[in-house]
């Protein structure tokens, strides 16, 4: 199961050559400020993903306050979680235009605004707009840059760095659950949301820590990556494209469009010629120049974003990436469904007393933290393929999902839940695998698509499982169906590298016959 570069299939060519002249590695790559980026991403996962996993506390308060059905009220939490991931491709457009730092800061403000406005909710539908949409979009604007920046700053220890940063989800689940429970008890749920909104402003601080790399730093990172690939012969080698500009953090001034340069030059000439005119006209010219520069930035960012999805170098021309998206549509719901339905399953098996001592969902969350770190360390070993670790973890998780309904004792359920928590640690490998598939330049847009597919899965998975239960009055079929769909996604990941490898061979045989 050893995957080569041809197996993974790169569709973003590189016509440039990297010289053999040794380049001194930048201290900020794999060290220095890179660990501040990990800290920033860790805090983002605590404040966003941890808070979302603790929404059960607020859901109970909303049920009591508004007296609506459980299904309708649950959509508030589902919208927030789903939109956070679904908006990924559109957040990629913001990153292309203004960079990760500005996008994250704006997202932090929007997320805090959503929490604060939700404190004044008069009905559930009001929460759909303020908490589900506003806070959800804000969360997405911070979450994607937090993941992308870790990929930008790390080369040798990418999997470990992503694993450490994403453990914030597990820590956040514990911290935010306790915090929200305390705030709701002491101050009521409205004041609790107001206070949480103030706490969420710390996301702006996390965004400020996302210092962009210079084009020189990115070029040096690429050279180090190329040398590392040649020496270590990694199974999943990184993108073979010279990254003079990453398309996210900065752009080379030499590559500005001629038309845009002409617009700016003309504005500058007008401004110089108008020095003798009144200050009012000069002020108007400055505004015109600023608007022109902003227009150039927006057009260039949109062009990069559009070409990634629909251009000749579209991400969707990479068949393995398309298979990866299909896998993501089925995978995330298999992880979310146990969190939603395990308490009810425990109640049906009369295991509530044991579960109250140590909840099964807590077992998943705790082991999930260790799974992310351990799988990240294993994937960074020189002799280990990240792709193979990713696939093995998926096989383990889908096996646990399919066997969980067969377990009817607390001990057996605890063992399966521990395996679910550990194997689901592959989430920390998703940015690494995505970058291996498409390269650093396209990481923001590509990972945005992946988390969008995960968001659709998270949004529709639990309601689908509940619908199956209403029909069969058993949760068994929910796990079986989600597990089988998950297996379909894994099969897509397995067969596409084989197809990618087979096609060049057939093409070479045809050319030989001609």
Automatic annotation (TrEMBL):
The lineage of its organism: Eukaryota, Metazoa, Chordata, Craniata, Vertebrata. It comes from Grus americana (Whooping crane). The gene is Slc16a14. The keyword Coiled coil does not apply. GO terms for molecular function: monocarboxylic acid transmembrane transporter activity. Residues 37-501 form the Major facilitator superfamily (MFS) profile domain. One of its GO terms (cellular component) is membrane. SUPFAM superfamilies: MFS general substrate transporter. It holds the Pfam family MFS_1. Its main location: membrane. CDD domains: MFS_MCT14. InterPro entries: MFS, MFS_dom, MFS_trans_sf, Proton-linked_MCT. The keyword Transmembrane applies. The chain crosses the membrane at residues 33-55, 75-96, 103-121, 127-148, 160-180, 192-210, 320-342, 357-375, 387-407, 413-434, 446-465, 477-499. Keywords: Membrane, Transmembrane, Transmembrane helix. It is a multi-pass membrane protein. It is found in: Membrane. This is MOT14 protein.
């Amino acid at each position: 199961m050893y995957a080569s570069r041809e197996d993974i299939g790169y569709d973003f060519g590189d016509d440039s050559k990297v010289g053999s002249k040794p380049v001194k590695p930048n201290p900020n790559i794999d060290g220095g400020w890179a660990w501040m980026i990990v800290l920033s991403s860790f805090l983002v996962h605590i404040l966003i993903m941890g808070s979302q996993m603790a929404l059960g506390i607020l859901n109970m308060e909303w049920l009591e306050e508004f007296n609506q059905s459980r299904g309708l009220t649950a959509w508030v939490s589902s919208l927030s979680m789903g939109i956070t991931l679904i908006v990924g491709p559109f957040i990629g457009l913001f990153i292309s235009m203004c960079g990760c730092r500005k996008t994250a800061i704006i997202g932090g403000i929007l997320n805090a605004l959503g929490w604060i406005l939700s404190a004044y909710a008069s009905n559930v539908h009001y929460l759909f707009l303020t908490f589900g949409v506003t806070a959800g979009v804000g969360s997405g604007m911070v979450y994607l840059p937090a993941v992308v920046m870790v990929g930008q700053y790390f080369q040798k220890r990418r999997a470990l760095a992503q694993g450490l940063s994403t453990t914030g989800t597990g820590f956040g689940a514990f911290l935010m659950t306790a915090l929200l429970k305390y705030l709701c008890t002491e101050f009521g749920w409205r004041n609790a949301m107001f206070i949480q909104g103030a706490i969420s402003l710390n996301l702006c601080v996390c965004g400020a820590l996302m210092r962009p790399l210079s084009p020189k730093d990115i070029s040096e990172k690429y050279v180090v990556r190329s040398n590392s690939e040649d020496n270590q012969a990694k199974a999943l080698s990184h993108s073979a494209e010279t990254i003079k500009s990453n398309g996210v953090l900065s752009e080379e001034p030499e590559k500005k469009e001629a038309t845009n340069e002409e617009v700016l030059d003309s504005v500058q000439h007008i401004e110089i010629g108008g020095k003798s005119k009144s200050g009012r006209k000069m002020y108007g010219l400055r505004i015109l120049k600023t608007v022109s520069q902003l227009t150039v930035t927006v057009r260039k960012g949109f062009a990069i974003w559009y070409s990634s999805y629909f251009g000749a170098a579209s991400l969707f021309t990479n068949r393995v990436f398309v298979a990866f998206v299909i896998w993501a549509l089925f995978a995330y719901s298999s992880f979310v469904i146990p969190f939603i339905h395990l308490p009810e399953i425990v109640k049906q098996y009369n295991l509530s007393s044991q579960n109250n001592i140590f909840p099964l969902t807590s077992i998943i969350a705790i082991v999930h933290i260790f799974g992310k770190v351990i799988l990240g360390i294993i994937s960074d070993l020189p002799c280990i393929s990240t792709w193979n670790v990713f696939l093995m973890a998926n096989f383990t998780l889908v096996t646990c999902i399919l066997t969980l309904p067969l377990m009817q004792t607390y001990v057996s359920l605890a063992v399966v839940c521990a395996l679910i928590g550990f194997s689901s640690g592959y989430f920390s490998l998703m940015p690494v695998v995505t970058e291996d598939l498409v390269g650093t330049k396209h990481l923001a847009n590509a990972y945005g698509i992946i988390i969008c597919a995960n968001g659709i899965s998270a949004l529709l998975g639990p309601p689908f499982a509940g619908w199956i239960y209403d029909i069969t009055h058993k949760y068994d079929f929910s796990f079986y169906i989600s597990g089988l769909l998950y297996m379909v996604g894994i099969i897509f990941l397995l067969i596409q590298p084989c197809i990618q490898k087979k096609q060049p061979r057939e093409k070479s045989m045809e050319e030989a016959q001609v």
